[in-house]
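Researcher: Here's a chain I'd like modeled. Treat it as a single chain, no partners, no ligands.
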Amino acid sequence: MKKIDIYTKDYCPFCQRALALLTSKNVEFTQIKIDQNPELRAPMIKRTKGPSTVPQIFIGDHYVGGCDDLMALERANKLDTLLSK
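Model: Modeled as a single isolated chain. Structure tokens:
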């Protein structure tokens, strides 16, 4: 299974939606809470090459983007393929 990282903040509704979708897929992921660990924000921005909002989602080496991007993959029936590669 691919390593999944998701950068979040506790009060973010988009983060909660993305987490709920990943949880429903029964995949393991690492949640990186940048509100509790603000020193991880700069590495997140470097990793995304600019975007600084949350959530920011990585599946393996693939940068997914945010919640809307994750939901678009699900609607297009591409998320399961990306998770299983």
